């Protein structure tokens, strides 16, 4: 698998290099490989590599490692957050209406590329947080003890692995009022944040090994959701009630819905 992946990633880098050379010597119609003709992530890496200005120069293996990380750690986590958020919005039509009103107000008259508009959508952020509380894409994180520790009367031997059950903490009635209910407003409380917040809300983990893709992941999720909510009206099929939706989760490293979600979609004028 590793060798097969290497071939794919080498090819991605080679194609980017060829395209950069063609751009420079072949009329230069496009500046980079991205959809909008600007640089994409690999172009940026190659530029930094060529200029060699970093204290620690990057080689192709470094670029491949980052791309590999993005594919393994950054794709299903983000897509399942988008999916769960849509499900919760469909189950709670009033929340859908409020979120959509905010998104449409913010994006009115702005082009797709004006992504910074997304950052002003405060209610959407609360909805995403509440979705990640009920459906943390990574439900369990792993830690190992560097030295023997006694926690709450339990001895954790050196080197033993400990599983931290984030999913259970996110629904623990000792920390959350009405834990099973979807209530975005609970996140108006500033201490419930992803970084340096209360330790019972950890969708991105915590400490040294916390998710390094948090900013990128959240931007992806907010951007995709705002486009879906801006451009389309969503509702469940006539014969399906929100409370009857099957919310079964699949077992895996990331928790996705077991069954596909079927919806009625109408383009927004
Ligand atoms: C909504 C999206 C995402 C969620 C919910 C998420 C969640 C997590 C969680 C819970 C961990 C384990 C943290 C810990 O052990 O304390 C993790 C690790 C990691 N994530 Fe993310 N992640 C997301 C997006 C991304 C993206 C977009 C990238 C890269 C572009 C990424 C890269 C990584 C990497 C490399 C690790 C391992 C870090 C380490 O062990 O040192 N993640 N993520």
TrEMBL record:
Entry-linked Gene3D superfamilies: Cytochrome P450
One Pfam family, short name: p450
Keyword terms: Heme, Iron, Metal-binding, Monooxygenase, Oxidoreductase, Signal-anchor, Transmembrane
InterPro entries linked: CYP450_71D, Cyt_P450, Cyt_P450_CS, Cyt_P450_E_grp-I, Cyt_P450_sf
Example of a GO MF term: oxidoreductase activity, acting on paired donors, with incorporation or reduction of molecular oxygen, reduced flavin or flavoprotein as one donor, and incorporation of one atom of oxygen
Compartment(s) where it occurs, according to its Swiss-Prot or TrEMBL record: Membrane
SUPFAM superfamilies assigned: Cytochrome P450
A Gene Ontology BP annotation from the UniProt entry: terpenoid biosynthetic process
Name under which the protein is recorded: Premnaspirodiene oxygenase-like
């Amino acid at each position: 698998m590793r060798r097969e992946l290497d071939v794919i990633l080498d090819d991605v880098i080679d194609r980017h290099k060829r395209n950069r050379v063609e751009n420079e010597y072949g009329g230069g119609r496009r500046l980079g490989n991205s959809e909008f003709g600007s640089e994409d992530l690999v172009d940026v890496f190659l530029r930094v590599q060529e200029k060699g200005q970093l204290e620690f120069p990057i080689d192709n293996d470094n670029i491949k490692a980052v791309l590999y990380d993005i594919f393994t750690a950054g794709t299903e986590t983000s897509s399942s957050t988008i999916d769960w958020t849509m499900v919760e919005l469909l189950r709670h039509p009033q929340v859908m209406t409020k979120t959509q009103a905010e998104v449409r107000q913010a994006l009115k008259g702005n082009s797709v590329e004006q992504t910074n508009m997304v950052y002003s959508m405060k209610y959407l952020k609360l909805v995403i947080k509440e979705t990640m509380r009920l459906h943390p894409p990574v439900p369990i994180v792993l830690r190992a003890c560097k030295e023997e520790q006694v926690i709450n009367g339990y001895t954790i031997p050196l080197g033993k692995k400990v599983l931290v059950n984030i999913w259970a903490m996110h629904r623990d009635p000792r920390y959350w009022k009405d834990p099973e209910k979807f209530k975005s407003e609970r996140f108006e409380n500033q201490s419930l944040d992803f970084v340096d917040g209360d330790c019972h809300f950890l969708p991105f983990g915590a400490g040294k090994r916390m998710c390094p893709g948090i900013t990128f992941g959240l931007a992806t999720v907010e951007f995709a959701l705002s486009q879906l909510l801006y451009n389309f009206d969503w509702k469940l099929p006539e014969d399906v009630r929100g409370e009857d939706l099957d919310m079964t989760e699949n077992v895996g490293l990331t928790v996705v819905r077991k069954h596909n979600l079927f919806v009625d979609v109408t383009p927004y004028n």
